[in-house]
Specification:
single chain; mainly alpha
């Protein structure tokens, strides 16, 4: 009997985000939605480079625009038909068109919700910290869209975990004494997630306050700069020669990116 074991090919692109993005662009040549995603990615990068040079907008605008761009990219590059009934209806043009229409509706809702949340934050002082229905609507829409985008990119683990904590906030009075609390209404949760009245100078989407703030204010601005260092090296190499090029090492690159 042969002891040969079946060798399965490993999809390397699925293990590397940059390769996965490159493959998506390569496979999507001619796809108008991928072309739209490329334009959105360019605008997102331009926005962060602009704020890096000329200063940040206020927290609600900076975070809101970053979140809007990120969700738009996911909805354009990860269509619904690739994640729902893909084995049965993915080949149907009508099904793909319906899924793309739904994705575009989510894109519009994303930017409308971001604008509503920013408007609520900017008028909190005038309204004596009172919010309107727009805060509830914006919070509900952003939660649903973020959970859906997380499901498409990360699977079901993170969305289910988030829903468990939302359920914990709703069911507080009915839980055992050791973990019970006064409970919160769905309306209050949505308003809190949209405006975060307790966040002081850093409102907008409380459930992602720390990671979203770090991405929108610090990390993402360094990514284009690091890529720029690599592009300069590639372009300069055939012009001036290898011996005249100083390639940043792992220790010097953070400083170079910081100065950029």
């Amino acid at each position: 009997m042969s002891d040969k074991k079946e060798i399965k090919e490993i999809d390397v692109a699925s293990l590397d985000s940059e390769l996965a993005a490159a493959r998506t662009l390569e496979e999507g040549k001619g796809d108008k939605f991928i072309m739209m995603a490329s334009v959105v990615a360019f605008l997102m990068t331009s926005f962060h480079i602009y704020t890096g040079f000329f200063g940040l907008f206020d927290y609600s605008v900076q975070r809101g625009v970053h979140l809007g761009f990120a969700l738009t990219l996911i909805l354009l590059t990860q269509p619904l038909y690739k994640h729902v009934f893909k084995d049965k209806f993915a080949g149907s043009k009508a099904f793909r068109a319906a899924c793309r229409t739904f994705d575009m509706i989510l894109v519009v809702l994303t930017w409308v919700s971001v604008w509503m949340a920013q408007d609520e934050v900017h008028h909190l002082t005038e309204r004596l910290s009172k919010t309107t229905w727009m805060a509830t609507f914006a919070g509900a829409c952003l939660v649903i869209i973020v959970l859906e985008c997380a499901r498409r990119t990360l699977g079901y683990i993170m969305p289910v975990l988030a829903l468990i904590f939302i359920a914990y906030a709703l069911a507080g009075p009915n839980l055992p004494m050791a973990i019970a609390h006064r409970g919160y209404s769905l309306e209050r949760i949505c308003k809190f997630l949209a405006t975060d009245l307790d966040a002081g100078e850093q409102p907008l989407f409380a459930c992602l306050k720390t990671p979203l703030g770090s991405l929108a204010l610090h990390i993402y601005r360094r990514v284009p700069c690091a890529a720029l260092v690599g592009v300069v090296h590639i372009v300069a190499h055939p012009v001036v020669g290898r011996e005249k090029i100083s390639v940043p090492s792992d220790k010097t690159l953070p400083g170079a990116v910081e100065r950029c």
